[in-house]
Amino acid sequence: MRDLAWGKRLNVLARLARALPPDDFESRLRLDDQTGIGHMTEQIGALTTIFTEFYFFLTVVLMFFIHVGFCMYEVGAARTKNVQHTLLKNTMAIPLVGLCFFLFGMWIYIAFQGWPVTSLSLSFSTGFEPWSQKIAPNLSDRISGVFWAAFALFGMTAASIVSGSLIERTKTSAFFIIAIYVGAIAWVVPAAWGWAGNGWMSQYLGFHDQYCSAVLHSVAGFATLGVLMHLGPRIGKFAADGTPREIPAHNPWLVTIGLFMIFIGFWGFYAACHIPIANVAAEGATPYFTATNIYGVPITLSGVVMNFSLALFGGMVTAYIVSKGNAYWTYSGGLTGLISASAGNDFYHPVIALVIAAAGTVMAYKLHYWVEKKFKIDDAVGAVAVHGYCGLFGGVVAGFALWGYPAIMPSAGAAVTLGEGVGWFGVNADGLPIVTPIGNIIGSLVFALGFGLLPGWVLGKVLASLGMLRVSPEKELLGLDGKHVPATYPAHSGLEAEFEAIQRAEAKI
Amino acid sequence: MNTGITSVAKLADLTAVYPFAGYEWLFALIVVAFTLIFIAAQISMDKDESAEAVSMPIPATPAATIAPAE
Lengths: 509, 70
Hints:
The complex is a heterodimer.
Chain A: H1 5-18, H2 22-27, H3 43-77, H4 83-91, H5 93-111, H6 144-165, H7 172-186, H8 188-194, H9 200-205, H10 213-231, H11 252-272, E1 275-279, E2 289-292, E3 298-299, H12 301-322, H13 327-342, H14 350-375, H15 383-401, H16 437-465, H17 473-478, H18 485-488, H19 490-493, H20 495-506
Chain B: H1 24-55
């Protein structure tokens, strides 16, 4: 297949602009990295750089909707006495995780890609240290900042996943500490290892998780479960005989809007997981411009859009059926479907994506209620099921469904280089590591349990033993908004009527 | 305050274009301090609110009202 739509378009543009004969033009093609350094004087290099710069900029804007969505969702799910606390707790994860990503999050992603398998040392010249000149206005680097922002948004999303489950009884400072771990550390190391073409798990295990089912969702979901074990349920959530009680959402319309916004943001999230344009041809070969997945393997956005859509449909319909029309689960089903299929949604057939989405949704729905009843886990928004169980499921399933597919594709354009002795579980005829069930099972379990459940459990234990995790029963009954409770809905609390009376008394009509 | 850049005639030679380039270590320290103050302030606010909650009477069970969403 040599459909070089973008490459041809860029070639034509460049030739027209510079009126160079073809041979001269070809000899001047230099797309040996994605940083843009040194390419702004070459037409095609400049176009590629600016397109990539703008592409990632737009993904950041779209991904912000995920955070808005989580805020709306959680606020809608909270009771009126906890609305402001819920909102601020989640909102402040944005600057908190963002600052930590500036300080060390992005550095972890670059520095840890080979550690500790291919290298035992960590570089402090990645360009993403907080003292780097690259993450600032710098005419020699146009990509690092937007790339950083895309990753920072991933981190904020990871922290948001935890946030919703803990509402109505968690101290904000405890959530902050958990958010720093989950948002700027917990998923970033797995991403360095298994969500980068040069990551050691990608190269040696053939690990494949294109849209972060295991790398991000399972880590955040299982970390949440670990914390919830120590946090305990909201007062009254379980009857004396252990039967869980439904705590009604105070505003289902916000829940609806929130989940729709998360869907919107997911489009941006998917887009941010690509290299939008790169020449993946070997040096000296005819250029082959394409979008690639995070591992440098060519993909089409057309295929990705189809898989995204069918996974969304599969999850929503299945959740609608299995929950017998429960609105909360129907909306969440969009996410369970997407997250279940995300690990391999760059290469699945759309119908395979739909089937995986449906299977993951049934599993998440059943497992959520089983765990809730069996272990008295009060997950206020079902994040453990939606992100944790589906993320792990998605990572494992991709190993089977994509068995044999090249896990990475080295090229200068995608900045992926092949390591020594790669492919512990198999290589293809070209010497590239292949995706295998065992590689994906190991990677997914290490991430979900090693970076999610276990550290989450330890963190919850430490915070609980220091008295920092949960508010007092008095505070929980009063509402976490405390003295601000009446201000949330002043028309209902009487505050509005009080002021109305003052205004009428003082009006000079 | 000065960026030290007074000409854009040689674009290919331009790199960092912000004021005080070369003091990035100081910028990094400012962010570290800012983040730590943020977290410390939150812990302090949590303590204050916990103390406040103990002294505040828990209101009687609220009467059923029209839901705010309606």
